[in-house]
Amino acid sequence: MNTTHTERADADPPVMRVSAVQQPEDRVFAALASPVRREVLRLLRVQGPQPVAELAAHFAMARPSFSEHLKVLREAGLASETKVGRQRLYQLEAVPLHEVQEWLGPFEQFWRAKLAGLSALLDSLEDDES
């Protein structure tokens, strides 16, 4: 039996699961790696808690794929789910983002120092041209 497999051009991309990642901060970084999940977090930050259907309406993907993204956010601690009647409301949980900010802090200091050095160099070049 010879069968051919043809992928749909509009097929949903695979969702990277982060449940196998051991460290909580690794789960957060893995969850943030997806532009879909970052956009979900932005929507929750800007618009507050929302039902799944309202969040899903922003994305052109199958509902099961979108639900997988929400699951990854929950497992990373970046979103929580509350059942209100028949709806599931999602809301942003920002505490893990503070941990990311703490990790990124030294890198920000590094780049600030580099930019300050560049600024000083450019200022000295302007003085030399005068």
Number of strands: 3
CATH superfamily annotation of the largest domain? Winged helix-like DNA-binding domain superfamily/Winged helix DNA-binding domain
- Tell me the span between the first and last alpha carbons: 81 Å
Which parts are unreliable, with pLDDT below 50 for 5 consecutive residues or more?
A: 1-11
Number of DSSP helical runs:
5
Q: Give the structural class.
A: mainly alpha
CATH class of the largest domain: Mainly Alpha
Helix coverage percent: 55-70%
**Domain count:** 2
Largest sheet: 3 strands, antiparallel
Identify the CATH architecture of the largest domain: Orthogonal Bundle
Q: What is the gyration radius calculated from CA atoms?
A: 21 Å
Q: Which overall shape is indicated by the principal axes computed on the Cα atoms?
A: elongated
SSE order, one letter for each helix or strand: HHEHHEEH
Spatial order of strands in the largest sheet: 1-3-2
* CATH topology label of the largest domain: Arc Repressor Mutant, subunit A
Overall pLDDT, averaged?
A: 83
- Residue fraction in strands: 5-15%
Describe this structure in words.
By secondary structure, the protein is mainly alpha-helical. The chain folds into 2 domains: 81 residues, Orthogonal Bundle (Arc Repressor Mutant, subunit A), CATH 1.10.10; 28 residues. It contains 5 helices and 3 strands. A hairpin with a 2-residue loop joins strand 2 and strand 3. Helix 1 crosses helix 5. The protein is elongated, with a radius of gyration of 21 Å.
Break the fold down into its secondary structure elements and pairings:
Elements: H1 24-32, H2 35-47, E1 50-51, H3 52-56, H4 63-75, E2 79-84, E3 87-92, H5 95-129
Antiparallel strand pairs: 1-3, 2-3
Helix pairs in contact: 1-5
